[in-house]
Specification:
The protein is an alpha/beta fold. It is 31% helix and 26% strand. The strands form two sheets. A six-stranded mixed β-sheet has the order 6-7-8-3-9-10, with helices on both faces. Strands 2-1-4-5 form a four-stranded antiparallel β-sheet, with helices on one face. A hairpin with a 2-residue loop joins strand 1 and strand 2. The structure holds adenosine-5'-diphosphate and magnesium ion.
Length: 252
């Protein structure tokens, strides 16, 4: 494995918005080592999603260079870029982004349809087992709670065994307990060796990471290790128990 999972040098991104250009990123440099869990914070509009999209090979920078797992991806063309994105990046979004008509299992199988790499045929089932949903594989998203839907999305992110998991406000649509359970899952995956980047504007969420990167106006303004790191197991233990237990069986 490369010394850095991610190595970004002076990334810039300009968007044309009518006749003016928006400088969404103004030179962001970042390195992430294997096994780190990094939180990216900053006010709305500071460039967090833009940076995540560049790191996740969704988009190319206007300037600067970027290596993923030792490979220079900043000059790749669309098809090579989308292949790398599918096989090396696991994305998790605030709104889960599951296909509503597909079962949990079929949602997790989707990345395999586009894969050139060989993936063990039981990888989707194993990924759903890993996130604690072995009894919900054939449910559709609307038959699952928000927290369960996010678990399906995390299973989909894991199924290709990516170099890095990139999560954009993954707890933004969840109640505090479900959100904390999702952060617990990320911490467990991180302890097992996964490299994870989480965008959040919630300092409490960020303090579960090993390092916090702050952004403002398209620049990284600070990058510090977390000295008082929170353990989601402790946070959950201190939360009041949910008043109503979630229903055992979702409606069909
Ligand atoms: P954040 O995720 O921190 O809220 P974004 O990365 O989404 O910030 O946006 C950074 C800046 O770039 C904002 O000013 C935003 O309006 C602008 N921007 C983002 N995406 C586009 C786009 N596709 N076209 C034009 N401007 C964009
Ligand atoms: Mg954003």
């Amino acid at each position: 494995m490369a010394e850095h999972v991610l190595l970004a040098e002076e990334l810039t991104k300009d968007y044309a918005a009518g006749i003016v250009a928006v400088h969404a990123l103004r030179g962001a440099s970042l390195t992430v080592a294997p096994g780190e869990m990094v939180a990216i914070m900053g006010p709305s509009g500071s460039g967090k999603t833009t940076l995540l999209n560049l790191l996740g090979c969704v988009d190319l920078p206007s300037n600067g260079r970027y290596w993923l797992d030792g490979r220079d991806v900043s000059s790749l063309h669309d098809s090579a870029l989308s292949r790398i994105r599918n096989e090396r990046i696991g994305f998790v979004f605030q709104t889960f982004n599951l296909l509503p008509r597909l079962s949990a299992l079929d949602n997790v199988r989707l990345p395999l349809l586009y894969a050139h790499a060989r993936v063990p045929h039981d990888a989707p089932v194993r990924a759903l087992e890993r996130v604690g949903l072995s009894d919900r594989m054939h449910h559709r998203p609307n038959q699952l709670s928000g927290g369960q839907q996010q678990r399906v999305a995390i299973a989909r992110a894991l199924v290709m065994d990516p170099a890095v998991i990139l999560a954009d406000e993954p707890t933004g649509n969840l109640d505090s307990r479900s959100g904390e359970e999702i952060i617990l899952l990320f911490q467990e995956l991180n302890r097992e060796g996964a490299t994870i980047l989480i965008v959040t504007h919630d300092l409490k969420v960020a303090k579960h990471a090993s390092r916090i990167v702050q952004m403002r106006d398209g620049r990284i303004t600070s990058d510090e290790p977390v000295t008082d790191r929170l353990d989601a197991r402790d946070v959950l233990a201190e939360m009041p128990a949910p008043e109503v237990e979630p229903a055992e069986e979702a409606e069909a």
